[in-house]
Amino acid sequence: MTPLLLASQSTIRLTLLQNAGVPVQAHPARIDEDALRAALQAEDATPRDIADALAEAKALKLGQRHPQALVLGCDQILALGARLFSKPTSRAEARQQLVDLSGHTHQLLSAAVLYHEGQPIWRHVGVARLTMRQASDAYLDAYLDRTWPALQHSVGGYQLEAEGIRLFSAIEGDYFTILGLPLLPLLSYLSLRGFIPA
């Protein structure tokens, strides 16, 4: 079986793949995500294109070092209209993100790109739409008291798999896409191509 290398340091993505029975090893690809994202935004790229380009850049980087391996690059973008959010660097920034998202519907775009033998062979961008209820200042402060600093790795200041689910009034989309990996389309492709047993 062709080994799958995950070009990510995301423990959630690694766990999802392992739990699905996919033989995988994580080898984070070091790219300058901020510079690439800024360049794409300067060119008026859509959030979908930005997520796809970042995922491909990671797959390409690791794929160049391991050309015979099957390499998976992933990225997730949170978009509120044309505004893109990044992982909060402080509790105050996480709070501001929650305030900005409260009462609005935002998108999570989770891109995945597979490289094999130096070429992209598959790509997918899953989209989920999440509507955050209007939360009180007191609730947001108490929520962050309970959940920071674990949220510093979560764009938007929430984790749906934990207490963050209470912030939402409606969610449309695939759960795995929300966690950062369009797992079902990926598994379908890997099975179809014989990379994993069907």
Q: In summary, what is this structure?
A:
The protein has 7 helices and 7 strands. It is of the alpha/beta class and 198 residues long. It has one domain: Maf protein (Alpha-Beta Complex).
Helix and strand layout, with pairings?
Layout: E1 4-6, H1 11-19, E2 24-26, H2 33-42, H3 47-65, E3 70-80, E4 83-85, H4 91-101, E5 105-116, E6 119-132, H5 137-147, E7 168-172, H6 175-179, H7 183-192
Parallel strand pairs: 1-2, 1-3
Antiparallel strand pairs: 3-4, 3-5, 5-6, 6-7
Helix pairs in contact: 4-5
Write structural notes for this entry.
With 198 residues, the chain is α/β, with parallel strands linked by helices. The chain has one domain (4-192): Maf protein (Alpha-Beta Complex), CATH 3.90.950. It has 7 helices and 7 strands; from the N terminus they run βαβααββαββαβαα. The chain has helices at residues 11-19, 33-42, 47-65, 91-101, 137-147, 175-179, 183-192, and strands spanning 4-6, 24-26, 70-80, 83-85, 105-116, 119-132, 168-172. Strands 1, 2, 3, 4, 5, 6 and 7 form a 7-stranded mixed beta sheet that branches. It is globular and about 55 Å long. It starts with a strand and ends in a 6-residue tail after the last helix.
The secondary-structure element order is EHEHHEEHEEHEHH
Largest β-sheet summary:
7 strands, mixed
Mean pLDDT across the residues is: 94
Shape: globular
For the secondary structure, the number of strands is 7
What's the number of domains?
1
Would you tell me the structural class of the helices and strands?
Answer: alpha/beta
Architecture, CATH level 2? Alpha-Beta Complex
CATH fold-type name: Maf protein
Low-confidence stretches: none
Q: Specify the helix fraction band.
A: 25-40%
- Spatial separation of the terminal alpha carbons: 12 Å
User: What is the gyration radius calculated from CA atoms?
Assistant: 17 Å
CATH class equals Alpha Beta
Q: Quote the beta fraction.
A: 25-35%
Number of helices: 7
